[in-house]
Design a protein that fits this description.
By secondary structure, this protein is an alpha+beta fold. The protein contains twelve helices and ten strands. The strands form three sheets. The chain has a four-stranded antiparallel sheet with strand order 4-5-7-6. A three-stranded antiparallel sheet has the order 2-1-3. A three-stranded antiparallel sheet has the order 8-9-10. α1 packs across α4 and α2 packs across α3. The protein starts with a strand and ends in a 6-residue tail after the last helix.
Length: 298
Amino acid sequence: MRIKLKKGIQRKLIILSKKKNNLTWKQLASKLSMSERYLRIDLLNENRLLAENIYHLLCELAGFNCDAQILEKLEDNWGRAKGGKNSVKKEILLTTIESKELAELIGIILGDGNIWADNHYYYLTIVGNEKKDKDYLLNYVKPLIKKVFNEDMNIRRHKTHNELFLYKGSKSLVFTLKHFGLKEGNKIKNNVGIPSWIFKNKSYIRACIRGLIDTDGCVCPITGRNYSYIWFSSNILKLRTDFDKAMKILGIKTSSWNIRKNRTPEIYIGNKNMLFNYMKTISFKNKRNLNKFKAPVV
């Protein structure tokens, strides 16, 4: 059930709940079991109606009853019911919670995924090598999406190009990913980067970096060395800048970016202590990388 209040009352109720309990926005969002972004952007600006349980909790926090200000109580599927069979399905947020799992999915999508929203066409796609990434995509990424969004991804194989696709046509899935900072369309043209909310928490940063390197990174031995380096490459300027920022926060030193003509810019972790730090705090979920990694001997 959704609660539709008189204009401005929803905003006043949220602000009063915050002030009366001397809470930060983050603390209030935590009490309501939602993301700070959803609270401050969607609910505070009255872009979304309050769920009935959230409404009652806010009334309790604010210390007064707003029932006299209610205009309507609407079923969760009111948008579809009102329009009937010809109505366009309204998007909903599949999750409002920031988490390590969501941060890792953001990294995976920034690496080997994309979202599209154009002319009633809403899709998430994630692609990898059919042989090398099959286990990772089917046994890790697919269940992770199910856990975070409760969405079952479809599977498609492109035999000619040796590619394996996870894909899902879902307006709400794309809407949710955009809500958490991703952009639809060409990632290079849009100069995408790591969403700002991920930088609030080191565990989010580690998870996002793992997703990035498990997709757009690799493990490579170096001539003359008896251990492996960890590499990451990207054609996206902001993503490279955000990657540097993330590694600096995590205290992991890297090389400088190697930018050459007609080659994807790349960076690597080669210092022994930094490699130990990376494997201890981040590691891999893609067995293709994990099985190739050879730890340095100190």
